[in-house]
Amino acid sequence: MTAGASTADALDLPPGDDDLSARLLPAARAAHARYVAELVELTSFDSGTWNAAGKRRVVQWCSARLHEIGAQVDVVDVDADTDGPPVGPALVARLAVPGTARVLLLGHSDTVFADGTAARRPPRQVDGRLTGPGVCDDKGGVLAGIHALTLLAELPGPRTGEAVLLLSPDEEVGSPRTLALLQTHAERADVILGLEGSRENGDLVVARKGACDVRIELRGRAAHAGIEPERGADAALAAARLVLDLHRAAADRPGVSVNVGVVRAGDRPNVVADEAELQLEVRAPTAAALDEILDTVDGLVTAATQGGITGRSVRTDYCPPFEPSPGSAALLHLAELLGARIGVAVRGASTGGVSDTNFAAVTGIPALDGLGPVGGGDHGEDEWIDLDSVPYRIALLAGLVAEAGRVVHQNTTEKEA
């Protein structure tokens, strides 16, 4: 039996109908109309990554809503001492909750959509779905987190746990300005719960691939393409061969992908190209596999530097994988138990997309993602969430926050043993 299986199997919930789950679901249903109205409001204006005003508006709205339930809210300037356009503030909210664990909830206020998208494509309800820019990624999840905290704030009894909600304004570009803040709070947490939408089939996320962007620059030698092409060193040809080599390198590595998304070479058709550029993204399920394929990319660039061609590769925007762990397995099992109490079948899945949970989970703290409503079509014109799933997902999330201490206690017991 693996460590993950041991931790999961040791978890249990007391029997009985009069339990936390039974109290949470009716309350979530009662607040459903408010959730829908609030999500329509949140998705009715633009908040792309470089729209700092839009993110400030999201943060102001969420701050007011969180103050209603007694949360302590801090608005954090992440643009200070940085170059480039502003992204707007991050939000950190703290709330005393039932339970014994310190739980970090991760969401983001930015979307991928250009200014004007919300006016051109406002939120709409169609056949039980709400569509709109950012409705699933990630405003629906952010709002689900706020509603889950609202349920917990309304429960009677002692509040020895703490929930910390962190909203980053730059997740869609890898959270470069929020990273230090995010990892600081992750290191202080007992459990990390990501508010990205669940998979279209309802699965939660127990693992995410890591990713890294690579820019490859090739230099050759220009020559007249009609009179003396042999005097040139064709950077375009070297780039074409390198594209094929890069794809072949990933083909025999399970779960590894190399996508060459941008290819540029030369500037005139009658001149042998003296320069070329490739921009690619590499993804892999483990840190070891990601490092290995990145080293292979560097080696292929070195091999391409012959016949007058020189080159170099530059890595940017490295995001570590969110790898499966015993702690994540225990959180998933707890979600299965809680889901059974409210009639939700819970399963776990791995995905190729990255999120802030990747950066948080690298600390080794137990993590689970995809706890927002069921949805899909992220980054596209048909992005949606399933409105019927919302009360169940909010109740499940609130239950996980309150019961997360079971995972912490079991992990501590196993370490001491």
TrEMBL record:
InterPro entries: ArgE/DapE_CS, Bact_exopeptidase_dim_dom, Pept_M20_glutamate_carboxypep, Peptidase_M20, Peptidase_M20_dimer, Peptidase_M20A. The keyword Repeat does not apply. GO terms for molecular function: carboxypeptidase activity; metal ion binding. The active site is at D110, E171 (proton acceptor). Keywords: Carboxypeptidase, Hydrolase, Metal-binding, Protease, Zinc. Gene3D superfamilies: 3.30.70.360, Zn peptidases (3.40.630.10). It holds the Pfam family M20_dimer. The keyword Zinc applies. PROSITE patterns: ARGE_DAPE_CPG2_1 (PS00758). This is Glutamate carboxypeptidase. The lineage of its organism: Bacteria, Bacillati, Actinomycetota, Actinomycetes, Micrococcales.
